[in-house]
Amino acid sequence: MSPTSSTATTSTARLEQLLPQLFQPDTQTGDRYLKIDIAPNLPALIALEDVQESAWMPAHMVTPIPNLPACVLGIMNARNQVLCVVNLAQLLQISGSTVHRQHYSMLTVRLPPTLAAPEDTNLLVLAVQEIQGILRLQPKDIESPIGDFGATLTPFLRGCVEREGQSIPVLDVKAIAAAPPLTSR
User: What pTM, to 2 d.p., does this model score?
Assistant: First the structure.
């Protein structure tokens, strides 16, 4: 055995001893969801399969466009694509919004493909209050949202989840994309 391979083996063994969770198979089950805050103290979940990326962007990267619905903050250029940026709280008619901030927490979500916009180009950017992290849920954990949320929010939900004594809405990206302020023009 050469000295280099001996050092590599020793380093791997040392890492395995210090960080055993890295060397264990992933035993977590369930679908992955991104936990966000739509507004202060209003968490929500979005299926991670619908999220292309999340980022923290300076407000000057969004170009306002006149005569659009109030929930549309403007457009931005990302990876040679022009994307519409929507304030999710305003779109869902929830008080407490991300307007007039120096930075936005943004999610780029994939929308269902259409004839005019194939799958790889049909994207929408949602500005949210904060991005919290990822958690896993079993499909059986998602319950009906009827009665837990207002009539303005319910049409945009897949369901809700009970966590730490709080009912957290699970958002439906397809329903959000079909919201009247985004489709009535």
Answer: 0.78
